[in-house]
Amino acid sequence: MVSKAVSIKGSLPVLSHVLLKTEDGRIKLAATDLETGVVTWVGAKVEEEGGITVPARLLLELVVNLPPGKIEISTEKQVLTLSAPNAESRLNGLAAEEFPPLPEVGGRTVFSLDPRVFSGAVSQVGFAAASEESRPILTGILVKGSGKNLSLVGVDGFRLAERKLTLPEDLAEDLSIVIPARTLVEVARLSAHQEEPIRAVLLPEENQILFELKGARITSRLLEGQFPDYEKIIPPSFTTRAKVVTDEFLKAVRLASIFARDSASIVRLHLDSTKPLTLSANTAEVGENKTEVEAAVEGESLEIAFNSKYLTDVLSNLQSEEVVFEASGPLNPGVIKPSPSSDYLHLIMPVRTAS
After folding, report:
1. If I label 53, which of 37, 188, 252, 295 is the partner at 20 to 30 A Cα–Cα?
2. Nearest Cα residue to 337 out of 352, 353, 319, 355
3. Which residue among 189, 209, 231 closes a domain?
4. Using CA atoms, how far apart are residues 268 and 289, in angstroms rounded to an integer?
5. pLDDT tens digit string along 296-335?
6. Which helix (H) or strand (E) holds 57?
7. Domain membership of residue 68 as a residue range
8. Tell me, what CATH number does 18's domain have?
9. DSSP code of 94?
10. Sheet holding 51-55: strands in order across?
11. Is 89 helix (H, G, I), strand (E, B) or coil?
């Protein structure tokens, strides 16, 4: 659980370590990369108080390969001894005092949310955030809200995803913060199977947020900067509209993507009210593919091209049987929505093609 927060390229050796420390008759485990921190606790019979940090990668590999049964942990100076049935290991570590302090709960709760609802929302917007650090603000998810309305928004310059949620209680105040996408993805992953609500707390420093889960806490720095005015990007109308079965659409995109790998992953959509929706892709060295999918098409005929990965990402994360595709010309963005729900919108910029 905590190893996900370990720094891979940290400047401080202790950031590649996990902290093990006795606390209130339990063992506290913590890891941080100074941007995100994860804390959890494991029940134990504590015979003597103490703490140490040990390399996370080695500890994880060791623990997952131990035989079933109780384990005994002891420390002497900066060495951790871990004893299990028929196995004893020693790991060189660092003093617990070298581990950076992590924030405690002490701020104001900004919202509480059902973990299944939260997890589903994050899965629909998290992949739309940028993975490259050239524009750090785009690696985050905008979380904004007022009253009972909360929106999660991800943008990477080529696509946009917005998921709207209804909270059980009004927000104490209007909210607009940007949280690293990888933090939200990790919170969603760890909370997906719990039943207690997730509590989000803004810490007194105002530049950090803490998510309190059952048996764990995840803290994260908020991203600073101007998030794009994404609402201006969303087209107010469309000239072509198609309703199609989600699974059939996804299968057709995946099939076409096989033939698009060596041609910048470009897949073409052909829409005509008198014909099925057609997806096609071709590469001179590989060949070509054309797949027809039954769809209810309205409006003007249209041929528009997209990166197949972007289509696959959104269609894989929709939980509706049907989706609606809307566009207004081959050079304007395409919009995908679940049908009949109106709480999610995904926009993809088209690819300009030679023909």
Report:
1. 188
2. 319
3. 231
4. 10
5. 999 999 999 999 999 999 999 998 999 999 999 999 999 9
6. helix 56-64
7. 2-98
8. 3.10.150.10
9. B
10. 51-55, 17-23, 26-32, 36-43, 216-221, 208-213, 198-202, 108-113
11. strand
